[in-house]
Amino acid sequence: MFGGISVIVTPMPSIRNSLPLDIVWFFVMLGLHVKVRNSQKEPRMLKRTSAFVLFILIAATFVAAQDWRSGIPWKKPEVITPGAKPGDPPSDAIILFDGSDMSEWNREWSIENGELVCVPGRGSISTKRTFGSVQLHLEFATPAEVSGRGQGRGNSGVFFGPYEVQILDSYENETYPDGQCASIYKQVPPLVNASRPPGEWQTYSIIFNRPELKIEDGIVYVIRPGYFTVFHNGVLVVNRHQLLGSTLFNRPSVYEAHEPTLPIRLQDHGNKIRFRNIWVREIPDTNVRLEPTREPYFQQ
Ligand code: MG
Predict the structure, then answer these.
(1) Ligand 1 geometric centre to CA of 277 (Å)
(2) What is the residue extent of each domain of the chain?
(3) Model confidence over 194-239: pLDDT tens digits?
(4) Ligand 1 center to residue 157 CA distance, Å?
(5) d(CA 119, CA 52)
(6) Would you say 208 and 134 are in contact if contact means Cβ atoms under 8 Å apart?
(7) Calpha distance 272→141 (Å, rounded)
(8) 3 state DSSP class of 47
(9) Could you tell me which residues come within 8 angstroms of residue 267 by beta carbon, excluding any fewer than 6 positions away?
(10) Distance from Cα 110 to the centre of ligand 1, integer Å
């Protein structure tokens, strides 16, 4: 009996690729096998019915197991090496600051113990390279010694062209919600305040999808808006926010003409913010989807 069962069962797993389905299949086949054996002493009609049910089940299994393909000629994804631990740069990252030098930047801030420290009054620093859509990782710490309040306490910012993700000491520091740490400045507050206390290292993982703009006769047309997604200390705080335009201090956001790729900038807002482990990965513009080169089909 068990030899008979194994003949029925063994070809099936490679077709269904599903353990739960395999278990269901096994017990259905076991029941039918016993039923067919018992029916050898029963009327011929019952044997025929059992055989018919068995045929339908096998046919249904093959139909359900067909492997649908989209017909889109996807390229095999490039193999990269991820960082050894969370926050470490993967092999395809561009390192903007690793503790040793500022060769990727247009201006010098001070480097102290492998940390990049804002020099108040010297001005913001920008990358020499320009970027479009990116994944950016950086770590920052606001001054351990608290001074000032609101927007005057531990203020900096990371700018993708004219679009700012706010950096601020927002640990028990009141300010307007769309200006606190991890806000998209003057556009949307973070979903939660995930700030660590002053002086502690914090992380940003930011996904920036650049807008596509067209300028005709001095008028800016938005072909595709920009988007931000932000993780602050590993917590999702901005979930695909659709940019309303440049993040401006003294007037409503509006899209302004700019090049498709722009420098990334760290803001000098008068506070000694420290930075480390800054890297970036260039990514395709949002939701790029290839056209199928053939009709969808079933792979046999
Ligand atoms: Mg700022």
Answers:
(1) 20
(2) 5-69, 94-282
(3) 999 999 999 999 999 999 999 999 899 999 999 999 999 999 999 9
(4) 4
(5) 83
(6) yes
(7) 9
(8) helix
(9) 124, 155, 156, 157, 158, 159, 164, 167
(10) 19
Ligand 1 centroid–CA 88 distance in Å is 25
Task: Answer whether 150's CB lies under 8 Å from 175's CB.
Answer: yes
DSSP 8-state assignment for residue 294: S
How far away, in angstroms, is 168 Cα from ligand 1 center? Answer: 7
Pick the CATH number of 94-282 from 3.40.1160.10, 2.60.120.560, 3.40.630.30, 3.40.50.720: 2.60.120.560
The residues, ordered by sequence, that sit 6+ positions from 140 with a Cβ below 8 Å of its Cβ are 156, 167, 201, 202, 204, 273, 274, 275, 276
149-176: per-residue pLDDT in tens?
999 999 999 999 999 999 999 999 999 9
Copy the structure tokens of residue 194: 């995930």
Tokens 């409503």, residue located: 252
> How many A from CA of 180 to the centre of ligand 1?
9
As a whole number of angstroms, the distance between CA 77 and CA 219 comes to: 39
Global confidence as pTM:
0.79
